[in-house]
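Treating backbone geometry as a discrete language has practical consequences that deserve illustration. The sequence in question and its structure tokens are set out directly beneath this paragraph.
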Amino acid sequence: MYVFYETSKRWLVLFLLMSAALWRPVLAFDVAEAVAQLYWQDERSGKTIATFIAPPVQTQSIVTHPSGGTWRVAGSGDFNGDGFTDLYWRDENTGANVIELWRGTQFLDSVKNSVIPMSAGWYINAIADFTGDGHDDVLWRHVSSGEVWMHQILSGELVASVQVTAIRDISWNIQLTPDLDGDGKADILLRHHQTGVVWRFLMDGHQIIDSRRFMNAAPHWQLALHGDFDADGDDDLLWRNTQNGQSVIHRVKGGDFSRHGMYSLGILDDMHWQPVWARDLDDDGDDDIIWHHDRLGYSSVYLLGSTGYIGQLLPSLAEGGWRPVH
């Protein structure tokens, strides 16, 4: 069921209107038609599920791993440039890292990547294409020194490990890695968790080519998601007010934020609903927003348009415990 919804209305009404659609039959389709491939992992068992979405928001899911053992999915990305989402696994005992290459439902290969012991203090901060070669890379940060290193990935293989910078003030967190200037390479947004200041690194591979303050925002505004919401080639930003649930999109052009490029998506005051992915689900050129309820397991989409959005619920993953794999 589709319901057009003005941006000034409350999302909760939309949820009630469409609750009957929650248990609708899943429509079968060829996964080659999918415009999004999303992974979920059960934090208790390690079980992993892939959900494929094809226009007009048809979904089907498959189990890729019945259990994970000591292995957990640390992230996902396209690590071999074939347009399909792959998985980055990390062994919580040994610190071994392995990339699994997938083509839809077809497992292709498992590539040993590196061994970084969990006790060493390194954690994955982001997975994005910093070099513009179509193969996603892995950004690591050290918990105490603040050093940031990039692992460049090519066809699933680790081909280079280079330092990006050192952010020694632990009050600064790497929040998002959008392509702010439309050059096909991911950039870095940092956020100071006390002041709310947002800092911008424009990137060319592992090199920072421009570093400056991007904007100020009160700390209760959550920098939640990035995506090209207006189909102009530059990623825009989705903010969420943690006090009242309001969501606002800030348009970005040429790496700069403009206050004239803001619009509200209304208020969703249940903070268990979180925006988790931005994907073009209806094949209209601009990214849409996928939401997930972390307690009930529901998922929904906002299909964005120029004056509002269409909302639709997706089949539930059952109860909570499932986390989206980014």
Observations:
- The chain has a mean pLDDT of 86.
- Residues 171-325 form one domain.
